[in-house]
């Protein structure tokens, strides 16, 4: 239960931050040129994306929205098996980011399942504009990749730890032991030695 609570808290934080940032950007940057911050390290540039992340698949907005719905349903389904804090945070970031962009596709123009995602962040030498939901999804992807490379499972175990637990836990059922074969050793009689 704690894992579900943490996951949904992370998702709500991401979703809230994404929604508020998009609202502020729409209110302050609509009709204005891009704003450069930190000597050009970060540029605020309002754009609308009908496709997936980084502008891919702009002609398939409805299909992308349905795929995102499937991803959200899958995350919620496997969340019951969560026992790892790192996996919990990763799935919370992924869930919050997916819901943030899905909200744009459902509720923004030109219509349901055809809405355009509000993007507004741009980095130097990075060809695409993105938003906080995209950043959250990217962080989740990196964290999931690290966990997978380290062999950490969603339930918090790793293959080596699982093997240690099975071998080291006396309560773990093992293969039935075969009874020892009767001894064929014959005691040597003292008379045999003298004959």
Describe the secondary structure blueprint for this structure.
Blueprint: H1 2-29, E1 35-37, E2 42-49, H2 61-78, H3 85-107, E3 117-122, H4 132-149, H5 159-168, H6 190-194
Antiparallel strand pairs: 1-2, 2-3
Helix pairs in contact: 1-3, 2-3, 3-4
Helix content: 40-55%
> What is the general shape?
globular
Strand content: 5-15%
Record field, number of beta strands = 3
Structural class: mainly alpha
**Secondary-structure element pattern, one letter each:** HEEHHEHHH
The main sheet comes to: 3 strands, antiparallel
- Oligomeric state: single chain
pLDDT < 50 stretches: 162-178
* Helix run count: 6
State Rg.
29 Å
- Write down the overall mean pLDDT: 82
Could you tell me how far the N terminus lies from the C terminus, measured between alpha carbons in angstroms?
A: 80 Å
Strand order of the largest sheet: 1-2-3
Can you describe this structure?
The protein has 195 residues and is mainly alpha-helical. Helix content is 52%, strand content 9%. The chain contains six helices and three strands; from the N terminus they run H-E-E-H-H-E-H-H-H. A three-stranded antiparallel β-sheet has the order 1-2-3. The radius of gyration is 29 Å and the shape is globular. The termini are far apart. About 9% of the residues have low confidence.
């Amino acid at each position: 239960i704690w894992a579900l609570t943490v996951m949904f808290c992370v998702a709500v934080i991401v979703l809230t931050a994404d929604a508020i940032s998009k609202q502020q950007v729409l209110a302050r940057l609509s009709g204005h040129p891009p704003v450069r911050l930190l000597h050009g390290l970060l540029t605020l540039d309002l754009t609308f994306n009908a496709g997936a992340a980084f502008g891919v698949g702009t002609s398939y907005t409805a299909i992308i929205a349905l795929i995102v719905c499937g991803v959200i349903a899958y995350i919620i389904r496997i969340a019951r098996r969560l026992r790892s804090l790192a996996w919990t945070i990763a799935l919370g970031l992924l869930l919050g980011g997916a819901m943030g962009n899905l909200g744009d596709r459902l509720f923004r123009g030109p219509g349901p399942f055809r809405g355009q995602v509000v993007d507004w962040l741009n980095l130097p030498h990075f060809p695409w504009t993105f938003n906080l939901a995209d950043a959250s999804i990217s962080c989740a992807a990196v964290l999931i990749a690290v966990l997978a490379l380290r062999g950490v499972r969603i339930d918090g175990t790793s293959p080596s730890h699982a093997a240690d637990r099975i071998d080291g836990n006396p309560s773990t059922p093992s293969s039935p032991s075969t009874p020892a074969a009767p001894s064929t050793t014959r005691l040597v009689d003292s008379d045999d030695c003298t004959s």
